[in-house]
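User: I want to check something. If I give you two sequences, will you return the structure for each one separately, not as a complex?

Assistant: Yes, each is folded on its own. Here is the first sequence with its structure:
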Amino acid sequence: MKALKQWLNKENTWYYCDTLMGLGDETLLEFCNVNCQKRSSGMTRQAVERLNKKVLDNLRNYCGQG
């Protein structure tokens, strides 16, 4: 989180997210260049499962186990 805050203190940097969970730390809302809607418009269980599978597949491929 420290590195992200240092980056946000630089000129012309922006951070956009949809949910507080995506934001990761509510103290980031103190930055004027952080925009969080604090809501999602349709994260279904099926979408979460697909995203989790994609992340795990990417990790396996990165580690050479794919």
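And separately, the second sequence with its own structure:
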Amino acid sequence: MPHVVIHYFQAELSAAALERVQQSLVQLLQQELSCPAGAVSIDLQPVAPAQWPQQVYRPLIVPRMAELLRRPDYRY
């Protein structure tokens, strides 16, 4: 049962854009993890750029840097 949490800089996303993101992620996870669409949950969490270091980078990225599938090319 994949659960995807995506933190991103606050942006206005239309309903159509949100639907494309949702469909793309579900399709990819179904294909690569062999799971049914109904097993996928997705949580989009907007974060103000000024809050990124405190809310995302230091508590979520730094402690797991060695385990990340893809590491960022920035530091705070």
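Because they were folded independently, the notes below concern the second chain alone. The beta strands are 3-9, 41-47. The longest strand covers residues 3-9.
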